[in-house]
Amino acid sequence: MSDLTFRYRFDDADDFGWLDVAVATDKFSGRGGFWVQWQDVREFGEKLVAYPIEPDAPVSAAWGYEMLEGDDLVVGLEIAPANATGDLRVQVELADYTEKSERVRTSFVTNYPDLEQFRKAIASLMDRKADEAILSGR
C-alpha cells in the first residue's frame, strides 16, 4: 500500500500557509513541506478532474525556491499515465525545507477513482472541513 498525504495549516493573516506533504511506498517514505498560497493548493486539486490525463500533459505541481528545479525544488508532484490500462503513476519529490540536498524521490501507482477521491479531499481540506487529503495507491 502506498499513499500521498496533504495537510494544510492556514495563516489567517495572509494567503500563505504551510503545506505538509508525506509520501509512503513499500520502498521509500518522506515528509516535507513549504509555504504555499491556499489558492495554489485548490488549483492543483481542481486540475485532478482531468480525464484522461494525457502522457504529454501530466498534472503537476512544484513548490520551492526561485527556479523550482534541482535543489530549489522542495515539493514536486506529477501524475501521468502509467500504462494503457488506465493506471496512473504518481511521482513525488520532497526535500527538507532547510537542508535542500536532503530529499526523497519515489513513485507509486494509483487509479482514476482514487484520484477523484483525492480531488474531493483536497477541496474539503481547502474549505477547512477536513484535516488531511490522502491519495491511495499501490
Protein architecture, described:
This protein has one domain: Transcriptional Co-activator pc4, Chain A, CATH 2.30.31. The protein has two helices and eight strands. The chain has helices at 38-47, 112-126; strands spanning 2-9, 16-24, 29-37, 59-64, 73-81, 88-95, 103-110, 133-137. A four-stranded antiparallel sheet has the order 3-2-1-8. Strands 4-5-6-7 form a four-stranded antiparallel sheet. Helix 1 (38-47) packs antiparallel against helix 2.
Question: What is the CATH architecture assignment?
Answer: Roll
Number of strands: 8
The CATH class, by name, is Mainly Beta
> Major sheet: size, sense and barrel closure?
4 strands, antiparallel
Question: What layout of secondary structure does this protein have?
Answer:
Elements: E1 2-9, E2 16-24, E3 29-37, H1 38-47, E4 59-64, E5 73-81, E6 88-95, E7 103-110, H2 112-126, E8 133-137
Antiparallel strand pairs: 1-2, 1-8, 2-3, 4-5, 5-6, 6-7
Helix pairs in contact: 1-2
Keywords, please?
138 residues, alpha+beta, Transcriptional Co-activator pc4, Chain A, four-stranded antiparallel sheet, 8 strands, 45% strand, globular
Quick take:
The chain is α+β, with helices and mostly antiparallel strands and 138 residues long. It is built from two helices and eight strands; from the N terminus they run E-E-E-H-E-E-E-E-H-E.
